[in-house]
């Protein structure tokens, strides 16, 4: 087991922060001024944690991870530099695996599934791709760290949450979503220590659609 | 050439409606009362019009057609019964080809790309799939017919259009979008005889993202 994983396991078990491993979520400009950032975190219950698969769909619905990554990071003919997409893969054989995809440094990508199948296979097989890192940070550790370190607003998408139109959202935001099955209750309960529950209304949207809508609502605020 | 195509070519050339071929866009209840409908029309400049391709991406970006179909028709674990998705394929070998995918009758589908690659191959190869029809209606004929036959609002998505937040949209709507290259100028000019130009703001969204956002804005109005 990686040293980082041992430390994090200890932290969760004993609820004692040992050390923050520098896998942080805030991008900084060279002068140290923090940029406005938007982050999406997809909790994938069954997403496979190695490269041993034939299709994204059959790899614990990594196709949903792909769709959410594209919805988070892509405009037409451009990548959103102010967005980071995270996914917490909880499927076999070595969960949890955290993939962090940073719009500011991401390269060699397109929006089509073949491209992302290739990229995910590469990264899950232990190789690197510019703009993508992987480690074993759990969602719990991530949220705890973000909540304690910054003024970022953390929001969990949930149908019974407060309607997004009534919520005055921070500029720096972390949105947490479940996949097609939704967040496990224990994860949701933990997240709600730090997060507010928000909803996009009465219709149940696909995870990627939620991200597209949230990006639009945040854009509307930021680019008047 | 099919008889229908000859008739439509004549209609366009001479601007004389010969006969409407019954490929209509409005769904009707059994009692004849017209349902509220939402329709999306994607003009695909290069989308292939036969089944001779190895991947959707390389078939004139049929992957965009797939993404837009899913964005139009799918909720989480459900199909939108009140939505029809159309695409006008203008690629080789036999353009134009109009595919009409009706949420109310669509069956045997999932949201993943493999499923849709299979379905599109089947339909473009001349076979049938429940909920999908194909014919050679051009976008021009379609819009003319809709505009003359009903009170449907027709909107063309275009970055320089009126902001959608300022537009009082009809319940029955047809939204026309271009693919990654955009609508050809001649098509746009024709469409604007019947349509209003609207915009989603200053950011250039992917075609499928536009559809997701429009569905959300229309839902917000319909499901308060």
Can you give me a brief rundown of this structure?
The structure is a homodimer of 224-residue chains. Chain A has a single domain (44-223), classed as Alpha/beta knot (3-Layer(aba) Sandwich), CATH 3.40.1280.
CATH homolog superfamily of chain A: SPOUT methyltransferase, trefoil knot domain
Strand order of the largest sheet of chain A: 6-5-4-1-8-7-9
Mean pLDDT of chain A: 86
Unreliable residue stretches of chain A: 14-33
Task: Compute the number of structural domains of chain A.
Answer: 1
* Shape annotation of chain A: globular
Q: From the coordinates shown, what is the CATH architecture of chain A?
A: 3-Layer(aba) Sandwich
How would a textbook summarize the main sheet of chain A? 7 strands, mixed
Into which percentage range does the β-strand content of chain A fall? 15-25%
Q: Tell me roughly what share of residues is in helical segments of chain A.
A: 25-40%
Largest interface: A-B, 34 and 34 residues
Could you name the CATH topology of chain A? Alpha/beta knot
Text of the CATH class of chain A: Alpha Beta
What series of H and E elements makes up the topology of chain A? HEHEEEEHEHEEHEH
The number of helical elements of chain A comes to 6
Number of strands of chain A: 9
Using the CA coordinates, give the radius of gyration of chain A: 17 Å
Q: Assembly type of the shown chains?
A: homodimer
The end-to-end span of chain A amounts to 49 Å
By secondary-structure content and strand pairing, the structural class of chain A works out as alpha/beta
């Amino acid at each position: 087991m990686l040293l980082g994983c041992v430390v994090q396991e200890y932290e969760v078990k004993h609820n004692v922060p040992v050390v923050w491993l520098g896998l942080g979520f805030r991008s900084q400009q060279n002068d140290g001024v923090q940029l406005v950032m938007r982050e999406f975190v997809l909790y994938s219950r069954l997403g496979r944690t190695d490269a041993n698969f034939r299709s994204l769909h059959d790899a614990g619905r990594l196709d949903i991870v792909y769709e959410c990554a594209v919805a988070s990071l892509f405009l037409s003919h451009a990548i959103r530099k102010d967005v980071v997409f995270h996914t917490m893969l909880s499927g076999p054989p070595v969960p949890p695996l955290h993939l962090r995809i940073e719009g500011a440094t991401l390269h060699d990508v397109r929006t089509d599934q073949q491209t992302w199948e290739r990229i995910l296979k590469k990264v899950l097989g232990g190789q690197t791709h510019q703009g993508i890192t992987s480690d074993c940070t759990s969602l719990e550790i991530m949220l705890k760290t973000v909540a304690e370190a910054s003024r970022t607003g953390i929001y969990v998408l949930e149908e019974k949450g407060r309607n997004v139109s009534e919520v005055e959202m921070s500029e720096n935001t972390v949105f947490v979503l479940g996949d097609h099955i939704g967040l496990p209750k224990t994860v949701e309960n933990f997240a709600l220590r730090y997060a507010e529950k928000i909803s996009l209304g009465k219709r149940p949207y696909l995870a990627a659609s939620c991200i597209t809508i949230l990006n639009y609502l945040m854009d509307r605020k930021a680019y008047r």
